[in-house]
């Protein structure tokens, strides 16, 4: 942690050393002030202080936009707030209301954490995209062109349309909450003026029978002894990865041949029919599992559900010759197996637990291929050309 007198000239030359995630350069003139230089090239002025017996950090702003003198002024104001027993994040509340950073970190995140299972995704988007671009702006000062510039900047850096759309959705929802909570300075929702970018969500990746065989061979050879049954369960049920990793024995109804998934993406429990293959798989696991074990797929190292199986999965898919295959593609493959076997989209919808048939319609082209094969059968029996 280098300590030296910060200057605009010095800050312009700072860089993060190779192999480091970030490096802090502390100022000798303002105690607690430092520049945090990240490996991705971003720099931020921050202050470190103690409050309530705990070490805390407050971001003052982008070091590429603020001068050192401005950073010291902000640090001085914030530290005075700390001495007075206040919150430095509210030290400079402008007439246009709280800053984007203050609103999303102090109000939005605590709220969504109370009910949203995927709040971690929101936190990542806020930290990586929203705060670097707009964090210092007041909520009430933002206008649609400001957000449009963020979108264009992300597009120029080749971010996926889906990532950009998540930023837009998060901004829209944040401003909706700000209006509902009558946040100072917020009189409208500037994000509503911008449309989401078009995304190419067409699913093209399905396992062929040959690829399925190679994949199953690879997972059975994995050093992770639980990888093979996990992948087999996903292929046999079309479940999502987290649903399988969190599966419990108490949710298996052997008599009715059903697996109850208490927590799904929609927030509602659903029941998955278990085929004879899935039941055989579960019986073998039951025979070898400890009697007191609640989790079906136990991590042998921890005795708990797996947090991640990426590394063993990544090794297996490469060995199987399908390095681009995602675990979620096993769910798509399950659907394709059903459609190619002549099952209706309605049946696929029910088995996958889709609330809207439009989600299942992505597999409609597979059904059309089967219809073309069907009409060829008729053509073979009705030659019209002598």
What does this structure look like?
This protein is of the alpha+beta class and 386 residues long. It folds into 3 domains: 3-90, Integrase, DNA-binding domain (Double Stranded RNA Binding Domain, 2-Layer Sandwich); 100-193, Tyrosine recombinase, N-terminal domain (DNA polymerase, domain 1, Orthogonal Bundle); 209-375, Intergrase catalytic core (hpI Integrase, Chain A, Orthogonal Bundle). It contains 15 helices and 8 strands. A hairpin with a 4-residue loop joins β6 (252-253) and β7. α7 packs across α11. The longest helix is centred in the middle third of the chain and has 20 residues, at 161-180. The chain is elongated, with a radius of gyration of 27 Å.
Number of helical runs?
A: 15
How are strands sequenced across the largest beta sheet? Answer: 1-2-3-4-5
Instruction: Report the CATH superfamily of the largest domain.
Output: Intergrase catalytic core
Estimate the global geometry from the Cα principal axes: elongated
How many strands, what sense, and barrel or not for the largest sheet?
5 strands, mixed
Into which percent range does the helicity of residues fall?
40-55%
Reported by name, the CATH topology of the largest domain is hpI Integrase, Chain A
Strand count? 8
Mean of the pLDDT scores? Answer: 87
H/E order of the elements? EHEEEEHHHHHHHHEEEHHHHHH
Keywords: DNA integration, DNA recombination, DNA-binding
Protein name: Mobile element protein
GO molecular function, one term: DNA binding
Organism: Castellaniella defragrans (strain DSM 12143 / CCUG 39792 / 65Phen)
């Amino acid at each position: 942690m280098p300590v030296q007198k910060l200057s605009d000239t010095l800050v312009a030359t700072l860089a993060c050393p190779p192999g480091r995630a970030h490096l802090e350069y502390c100022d000798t003139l303002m105690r607690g002030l430092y520049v945090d230089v990240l490996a991705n090239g971003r720099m931020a002025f921050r202050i470190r202080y103690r409050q309530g017996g705990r070490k805390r950090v407050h971001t003052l702003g982008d070091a590429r936009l603020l001068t050192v003198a401005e950073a010291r002024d902000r640090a001085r104001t914030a530290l005075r707030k700390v001495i007075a027993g206040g919150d430095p994040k509210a030290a400079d509340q402008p007439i246009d209301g709280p800053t984007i950073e203050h609103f999303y970190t102090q109000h939005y995140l605590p709220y969504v954490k109370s009910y949203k299972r995927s709040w971690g995704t929101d936190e990542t988007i806020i930290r990586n995209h929203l705060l670097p671009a707009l964090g210092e702006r007041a909520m009430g000062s933002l206008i649609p062109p400001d957000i449009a510039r963020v979108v264009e900047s992300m597009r120029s850096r080749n971010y996926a349309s889906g990532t950009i759309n998540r930023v837009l959705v998060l901004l829209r929802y944040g401003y909706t909450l700000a209006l509902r909570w009558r946040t100072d300075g917020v009189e409208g929702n500037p994000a509503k003026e911008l449309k989401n970018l078009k995304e190419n969500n067409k699913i093209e990746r399905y396992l062929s029978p040959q690829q399925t065989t190679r994949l199953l061979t690879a997972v059975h050879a994995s050093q992770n002894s639980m990888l093979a049954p996990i992948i087999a369960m996903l292929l046999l049920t079309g479940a999502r990865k987290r649903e399988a990793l969190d599966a419990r024995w108490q949710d298996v109804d052997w008599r009715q041949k059903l697996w109850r998934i208490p927590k799904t993406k929609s927030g509602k429990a659903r029941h998955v029919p278990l085929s004879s293959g899935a039941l055989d798989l579960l019986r073998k696991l039951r025979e070898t599992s400890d009697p007191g074990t609640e989790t079906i797929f136990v991590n042998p190292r921890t005795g708990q559900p797996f947090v991640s199986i990426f590394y063993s999965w990544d090794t297996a898919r490469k060995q199987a010759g399908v390095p681009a295959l995602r675990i979620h593609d096993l769910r798509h493959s399950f659907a394709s197996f059903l459609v190619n076997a002549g099952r209706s989209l309605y049946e696929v919808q029910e088995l996958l637990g889709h609330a809207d048939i439009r989600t299942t319609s992505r597999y409609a082209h597979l059904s059309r291929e089967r219809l073309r094969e069907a009409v060829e059968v008729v053509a073979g029996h009705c030659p019209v050309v002598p």
